[in-house]
Amino acid sequence: MVDFTLTKEQLKLQLGAREFAQEYMIPYAHYYDKTGEFPLPIIRKCWEVGLMNLSIPKEYGGLGLGVLEQCIVVEEMAAGCAGMTTSIYVNTLGAEPILVAGNKEQKDKYLKPLTEDLKFISFACSEPGMGSDVAGIQTRVEKEGSHYVINGSKFWITNAPHADYFTVFASLDPRQRHRALCAFIVDADTPGVKTGRPVEKMGHKASTTSSVIFRDAKVPEENLLGSEGTGFPIAMKTFSMTRPAIAAFSTGLARAAMEYAREYVNKREAFTQKLREFEVIQFKLAEMYMKIEASRVLYLKAALATDTEEDSTVPASVAKAFATDAAMEIASEAVQIHGGYGYIDQYPLEKLFRDAKLYQIYEGTSEIQRLILGRHVLKDYEPAMKELPKWVNMKPPDF
Q: In the chain, pLDDT over 90 holds for what percent of residues?
């Protein structure tokens, strides 16, 4: 039996995140979007109230919450500000490879500090020449005695200038693609590690993004996650754990866009009528609501699968592909409803529109999700009809 009712604990968590977003995020979203400053005071407050690092197990000082609970929080916070939420949630992405493949010593050393003070861990996978093609990583790593030496560059790394450490993916031999990938924990103050200046982006301006350069950066062998050559499955497992949250991000942003549109049509008049009285406007709001409801169900299903099943790749890809596309469509329609006001920065719609686009790109583009799902349909999907019946039959039934 399927039950989408949240527990009392989940409802309390949802309410806490909603109140945080409305009190601390929405009032300052415009300021941080315009200035591009890193919203450290907001993030520190988020850490203080316990809405950060939600996946870290209790034995390391965290709440040990599942992906489902994380998604509930993310939807509420993304409705407040997508950029701030990205910089808050990236700690979960950065820590996930340690949760997936780290040993006890690594978890003690790198997870506990995240719960004892405000620290940042960034996920360093994407490169200037590759994004979704993880197997195509060109950053090199070589073993030298008791250390690994990393050389290469990473790009689009969230929170990089503020990171205390990184989870880094590098290759022993790029020609071998996924078979040669390794994953490491790298302290940000390691000699040879340098971050670039923050890049200017179309949206998510409250989230700092920059490059990370490795030049003969020596990493102790005890910082290798898993074993040599296991970096690719670690990355894929990480994405399957975090992609439901990107769908939740999208759902929160889309919900905010719909609510702003709803408020606007209740106040605005045209041709002596309130906009809400026009059928075309009602249809637009109906389409928004349907897509938001569908997005939420899909991310809840994906999150539940992630928490309970060995492989949640397919439901996670379904949720991310659908919800991110829906958010882009809903943000666009909300701008349209606002008309000229939707196009100026005195209203939040143009920011939501800019922010929505990134969801279709990061943590695996919408095209990559469709590639995953297309391959699933052709290779692993089990048809309900084992043998397709003959369609044309000119004889009447004889029962």
A: 83
**How many other C-beta atoms are found inside a 10 Å radius of the C-beta of residue 109?**
17
The number of angstroms, rounded, from the C-alpha of 379 to the middle of its chain's C-alpha atoms is 27
- The structural domains of the chain, ordered by start, are 8-116 (1.10.540.10), 121-229 (2.40.110.10), 232-379 (1.20.140.10)
Q: How far apart are CA 319 and CA 338, in angstroms?
A: 28
Instruction: Spell out the alpha helix ranges (H) of 176-278.
Output: 231-267
User: Which pTM value belongs to this model?
Assistant: 0.93
d(CA 210, CA 371): 28
pLDDT tens, position by position, 117-159: 999 999 999 998 876 788 889 999 999 999 999 999 999 999 9
DSSP letter string, 120-157 = -EEEE--BTTBSS-GGG---EEEEETTEEEEEEEEEEE
Nearest to 292 by CA among 319, 254, 325: 254
CA dihedral sign, ordered 114, 108, 140, 358: negative
Q: How far is CA 394 from the centre of its chain?
A: 54
Average pLDDT for residues 48-71, to the nearest whole number? 94
Enzyme catalytic residues: 363
Q: Shortest CA distance to 302 belongs to which of 289, 311, 293, 290? A: 311
Say whether pLDDT at 363 is over 90. no
Nearest by Cα to 222 from 108, 116, 113, 90: 108
Q: Per this entry, what is the length of the chain?
A: 399
Res 269 pLDDT > 80: no
